[in-house]
Write a structure and sequence with these properties.
This protein has about 250 residues and is of the alpha/beta class. It contains seven helices and seven strands, in the order E-H-E-H-E-H-E-H-E-H-E-H-H-E. The protein has a single domain, classed as Rossmann fold, CATH 3.40.50. Bound molecules: NADP nicotinamide-adenine-dinucleotide phosphate (NAP).
Amino acid sequence: MSNPIEPVALVTGAARRVGAVIVRQLHAAGYRIALHVRHSRAEGEALQAELQALRADSCLLLEGDLADTAALPDLVSRTVDHFGRLDALVNNASAFYPTPIGETTEQHWDDLFASNAKAPFFLAQAAAPALRLSRGVILNITDIYAERPLRNHCVYVMAKSALRMMTLSLARELAPDVRVNAIAPGAILWPESGKAYADQQTLIDKTPLQRAGEPEDIARTALFLLRDAPYITGEVIHVDGGRSLII
Ligand SMILES: NC(=O)c1ccc[n+]([C@@H]2O[C@H](COP(=O)([O-])OP(=O)(O)OC[C@H]3O[C@@H](n4cnc5c(N)ncnc54)[C@H](OP(=O)(O)O)[C@@H]3O)[C@@H](O)[C@H]2O)c1
């Protein structure tokens, strides 16, 4: 059993990109990390080794497809069994791609809802008892497009909208023991496919701060909501350079 005083965070989809930066930020602040991956096992192992080199037994690697709902409680119980507690669940994993009308299948729907809405709910439900004990936190990573349409992405924005409402709803249901908040990022890292956004410069032109954000902007806000915001619950913080101010 590890040191029971250091807090523990379970972060989904955390091997790469924004999730990995959140993990590094939390770890640097003293959190022990349950690092969930699906396909990015090699990157997850490299990140685990990096963190373990900094502090022994500070990172547990968990693997699984979040579409496997029956397996979700196991991610939580393995974290609690290993570290002895759970202080934060960060629902970061997300599928993101267009679903134009006329071309969208039930499989697209199921896939987009699995990572963006269904798994966060069932993970939260499984984590609630341990989070109540630690007076912990759930943090959902939504999107500014949870509150406005994004052309050709109807199913994705519906799923993120569900995650946003889950944030508000669970904040009431789990109070006063567990706080539940969300971060709604704007343009931070472009999708790797490069296909989803035809015109990245147009997006930046519509952003008052005139640039894309950085994963560190999300990670710093995550740490704030987890560690430094004991009177904030049911809140969605837009980290978007002001993008959501512009229609
Ligand atoms: N990047 C942005 O500019 C931006 C903008 C708005 C909102 N966001 C939100 O911020 C968060 C992080 O963004 P990101 O761009 O870093 O995310 P990302 O790279 O698109 O996805 C993060 C991880 O999600 C995991 N994932 C997807 N479907 C999964 C499934 N069914 N089961 C398990 N894992 C699954 C993948 O893990 P594996 O690689 O291990 O398979 C992937 O690496 C996401 O919630 C995203 O919606 C990002």
